[in-house]
């Protein structure tokens, strides 16, 4: 097999990144945008030892699950790399990811629920972070073509709240009008690197964050005046990111006008969210995810609860009224400030959050003899560490509710808990990210030893 060769392939599977999978002369070939059941003629792009990457030249036999989306760019850019499959099949794809991981781990007795569909299949995101670059002599917003930094100009971001798209385009036009240069990542020059726009569905507040190479630029006062007139915008923040890096946000924020936080609401609890804090992006699906997690916890009024990887305290503060106390751990200082402030504005005086790494704080708590009843964990993609798992178990919880955005590390961690006297019998996938391959899942571990 060699580069640029054109071959006919039968697609038999979808990889976890949503690439079509085919087998050809002992090689596994990953074909972008191809679907199981399809026959395609494909061009080989890259050859490795046992596998290769290819792209579709022509679809010879099309899958009945293929949907013809208006803008092929959404799939091309990886903004919505599952968008070419109908929604029911997307849900099935996500469930299968979990089933396959359990099979590999020989956990055959675990039931996997049907993926909980998102109330909105498009336009569900309450936040967009889009790169700003110069394309053809003009400042553009858009998304990078997959595996590259070529900007594909876009004005409709498909998975984002249309109100956010409207603001993104309006801000782009302001930047063009005042000739603010786009960021040039090759020379680390120019000015605006990203536009980050967030909107609260509950209050309608909109925060615009200009991610800039400098703390200030000559056109800023005029740009700010113009952004103030865009309907719905309640704050403007300049995020200072001077480094040559792919990390989107820098560490310092300057409030240019409006409120320093945006206010949102989950159930009957209000949340103020700072620019550096994590907040779940699918506003309508988040309460459904939490409901599922909280049901599994079967909380009682005497429970001592830990909310680990807490963000701004959304899970802990949702349950605080129904339990004895909540202790939260989160590594981002601003998020912890938000969490404690959110406890206060909601009159939840039994909840306290601390800044630190969960894998360091939990062992300290365990060493001090802390006892817990229920621990919620909601870690980033890399999952938990053995230190955290050990310490969590030492505090003796009846239940550990695990919310995960990466089922691979979740299954790994669940097996660790099993070795320490905890067991689980069901995982429920929840679709937080329609049109993308991301899988969210929830499970509860219960103590098997007395
Ligand atoms: N439970 C929250 C946040 C989940 S996202 C919610 O539902 O909104 C995961 C959070 O873990 C992020 O806020 C991130 O800043 C935090 N985090 C990442 N690594 C961490 C670590 N080692 N210790 C504690 N928190 C961490």
What does it look like?
S-adenosyl-L-methionine binds at residues 280, 309, 330, 378. Its EC number is 2.1.1.190. This is 23S rRNA (Uracil(1939)-C(5))-methyltransferase RlmD. There is one protein chain. Strands 6, 16, 17, 18, 19, 20, 21, 22 and 23 form a 9-stranded mixed sheet that branches. A 7-stranded mixed sheet has the order 9-8-7-10-11-12-13, with helices on one face. The chain is 25% helix and 32% strand. The chain is globular. Helix 8 (358-367) packs parallel to helix 9 (386-394). The model has no long low-confidence stretch (mean pLDDT 96). It contains 10 helices and 23 strands. It folds into 3 domains: 6-66, OB fold (Dihydrolipoamide Acetyltransferase, E2P) (Beta Barrel); 127-266, OB fold (Dihydrolipoamide Acetyltransferase, E2P) (Beta Barrel); 282-447, 3-Layer(aba) Sandwich (Rossmann fold), CATH 3.40.50.150. With 450 residues, the protein is of the alpha/beta class. It has helices at residues 72-76, 87-104, 162-177, 220-228, 286-297, 314-319, 333-345, 358-367, 386-394, 407-419, and strands at 6-14, 20-24, 27-32, 39-47, 51-61, 111-112, 127-135, 138-144, 151-153, 192-199, 206-212, 233-240, 252-258, 262-266, 269-273, 304-308, 325-330, 351-355, 374-377, 399-404, 422-423, 426-430, 440-447. It binds S-adenosyl-L-homocysteine (SAH).
